[in-house]
Amino acid sequence: MEKLIRYVLEIRIFPTSYPTNQAELQLFRVMQNASLLLYYDTLLEMGGDDVQQLCDAGEEEFLEIMSLVGMASKPLHVRRLQKSLQEWVTNPVKFKIPLVPGEDF
């Protein structure tokens, strides 16, 4: 599987799986928008590739998901993800932009 390299301010590198379908692309873009790609692979591994499911989750379920992916201990990361999900709800087209021009799932 192809890997994208994600650089963060601390100059750490996070290999990230390349999205293989529209659902994964939307999740990738939501996480990228929140600068949280380091959680992307973990969400995929746990079956969290449905952005709508994340949006529809109640507070308790959402926090349980955040705990499963290791984000619950970083409340500002959780907040950034919530803001990115809200943006996805209001402007979903922004999150469908292909990583490579001309790519279509």
UniProtKB/TrEMBL annotation:
Q: Which Pfam families match?
A: SAM_NCD1
| Positions of the Nab N-terminal domain | 19-95
Q: Which PANTHER family match?
A: NGFI-A BINDING PROTEIN, NGFI-A-BINDING PROTEIN HOMOLOG
Q: What is this protein called?
A: Nab N-terminal domain-containing protein
Give the organism the record lists.
Molorchus minor
